DNA sequence: GTGAATGAAAC
DNA sequence: GTTTCATTCAC
């Protein structure tokens, strides 16, 4: 499979005849060759090819199977920016990795209650393989009559409701496009959707294929046929009904980038385990926690999605999952109130923050509109997330934890103007591994753990530290923007009224 | 409240 | 160059 830009400022997902294209989303599995002995686990790897600027990664889907580990299919999602007006705004479309709980889905969660988003509709699916996805600046999604990105969409979608009028705000149009039924971002009904989710959704077949074959090993063609013949719905129907339980994670370097290798347990014996590679900042929707990632602060900066910290045992849900819908993540969404994004941000973050602002205005909840107040709200929301044991985004961290420590929780109501310094790279590392080390060395005092952590930190290679440094920088930049005085050194008692 | 680590930023 | 403070929690 290949993806390439086409003329007219369009992004296209082209599926050559020879590719074993997964009909639901344009990611295909190349099931060729024999499965290496001893491997019983499906291995679906996804990687996002990052451009030099992390903010604007080219999305590269990479699919491997155990049957043919050396055969890697890459899907590069490129947006042609030649067309005027195709600002960075559209880049969000290529930044979405579209995992079941990918950033793109944030905008399509019914429970997000985005007042200004088009109403979501159940997406019908059919089995027709998708050949092309195209977005043009002058053709709004509802007008597009060519081969549909998502042919699993309902024909009776309320397209007319989203009609683009002259002079419509580009961002609004973008939002419409991004949230249209045809948009890959909107394939959010887990059981119906295509795209990323497909990664997991269709992995059932991959898994089944990866399992020890009932008889002789399956051939490439059989796998291919199996894939093409079955509709996504059939794949997804009984897949992940209870979510995917995260059972292990590790960080590794892939294509020069730090990636997370996650292993999920679908919960059914026949499905085996699912191994996925994704970016460090990839958010997942976790049962009873909401959006979560291993690097919440990176996620909020990269995708604008405040997250809780993800842990082993977390149950990842697709946004369309009933449990996901029932989870009240309004607090997470309200976090967007904290960000004062400008059109210069030109990202999904800006779009979402704008929506959040509109929503806030419509709700007219009153109270201070100051950032500080909102940050307090943010903290409160994070803390109020009782199901989340650990911190939410570091930007929205435990500042509001309000335990007795007077110095640490100075962002409380008593000193609303005080914000906490963002963590540096080591602190992020320490926070992440302190628990692990504490368990590893039971009985060790926390100070001793700190020594071990410091020692470990010094021994780490630069590339290993890089992810933390990156996250720390992102945090610092964000904090500077939101609170330039954050690093102001304490003048004794001066900030305590 | 202290301490133990590291690092960024203010003094 | 020095100081402060981010996290964490037993003490």
From TrEMBL:
In this record, what's one Pfam family?
AXH
Reply yes or no: does the keyword Repressor apply.
yes
User: Which residues does UniProt assign to DNA binding?
Assistant: 419-487
Gene Ontology CC annotation, any one: nucleus
Q: Which UniProt keywords apply?
A: DNA-binding, Nucleus, Repressor, Transcription, Transcription regulation, Ubl conjugation, Wnt signaling pathway
Where do the AXH domain residues begin and end? 192-327
Q: Where is the composition biased (Basic and acidic residues)?
A: 226-237
Instruction: Give one GO molecular function term.
Output: RNA binding
Q: Name one GO biological process term.
A: Wnt signaling pathway
Q: Where in the cell is it found?
A: Nucleus
User: What is this protein for, i.e. what is its function?
Assistant: Transcriptional repressor that binds to the promoter region of target genes. Plays a role in the regulation of the cell cycle and of the Wnt pathway. Binds preferentially to the sequence 5'-TTCATTCATTCA-3'. Binding to the histone H1.0 promoter is enhanced by interaction with RB1. Disrupts the interaction between DNA and TCF4.
Q: What is this protein called?
A: HMG box-containing protein 1
């Amino acid at each position: 499979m290949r993806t390439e830009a086409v003329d007219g400022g369009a992004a296209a997902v082209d599926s050559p005849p020879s590719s074993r294209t997964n009909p639901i989303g344009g990611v295909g599995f190349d099931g060729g060759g024999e499965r290496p002995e001893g491997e019983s686990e499906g291995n679906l790897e996804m990687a996002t090819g990052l451009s030099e600027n992390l903010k604007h990664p080219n999305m590269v889907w990479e699919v491997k199977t155990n049957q043919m580990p050396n055969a890697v299919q890459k899907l590069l999602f490129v947006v042609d920016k030649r067309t005027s007006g195709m600002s960075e705004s559209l880049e969000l479309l290529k930044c979405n990795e579209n995992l079941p709980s990918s950033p793109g889905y944030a905008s399509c969660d019914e429970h997000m209650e985005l007042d200004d988003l088009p109403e979501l509709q159940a997406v019908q699916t059919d089995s027709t393989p998708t050949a092309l996805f195209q977005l043009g600046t002058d053709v709004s999604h509802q007008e597009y009559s060519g081969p549909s990105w998502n042919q699993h969409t309902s024909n009776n979608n309320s397209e007319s409701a989203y009609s683009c009028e002259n002079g419509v705000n580009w961002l609004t149009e973008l939002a419409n496009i991004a949230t249209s039924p045809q948009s890959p971002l909107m394939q959010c009904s887990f059981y119906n959707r295509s795209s990323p989710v497909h990664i997991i959704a269709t992995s059932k077949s991959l898994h089944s294929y990866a399992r020890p074959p009932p008889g002789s090993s399956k051939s490439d063609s059989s796998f291919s046929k199996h894939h093409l013949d079955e509709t996504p719905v059939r794949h997804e129907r009984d897949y992940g009904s209870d979510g995917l339980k995260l059972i292990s994670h590790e960080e590794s370097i892939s294509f020069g980038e730090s990636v997370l290798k996650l292993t999920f347990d679908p919960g059914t014996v026949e499905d085996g385990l699912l191994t996925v590679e994704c970016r460090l900042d990839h958010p997942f929707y976790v049962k009873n926690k909401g959006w979560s990632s291993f690097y919440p602060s990176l996620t909020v900066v990269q995708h604008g999605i405040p997250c809780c910290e993800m842990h082993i045992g977390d149950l990842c849900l697709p946004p369309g999952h009933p449990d996901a819908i029932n989870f009240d993540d309004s607090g997470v969404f309200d976090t967007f109130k904290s960000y004062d994004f400008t059109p210069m941000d030109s990202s999904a973050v800006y779009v979402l923050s704008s929506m959040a602002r509109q929503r806030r205005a419509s709700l007219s909840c009153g109270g201070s509109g100051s950032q500080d107040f909102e940050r307090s709200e943010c903290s409160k929301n994070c803390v109020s997330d009782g199901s989340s044991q650990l911190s939410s985004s570091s930007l929205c961290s435990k500042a509001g934890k309000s335990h007795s420590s007077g110095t640490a929780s100075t962002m409380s109501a008593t000193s609303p103007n005080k914000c906490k310094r963002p963590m540096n790279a080591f602190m992020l590392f320490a926070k992440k591994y302190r628990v692990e080390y504490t368990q590893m060395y039971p009985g060790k005092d926390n100070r001793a753990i700190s020594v071990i952590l410091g020692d470990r930190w010094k021994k780490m290679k630069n590339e290993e530290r890089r992810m933390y440094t990156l996250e720390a920088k992102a945090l610092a930049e964000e904090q500077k923007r939101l609170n330039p005085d954050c690093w102001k050194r304490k003048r004794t008692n001066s900030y305590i009224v």
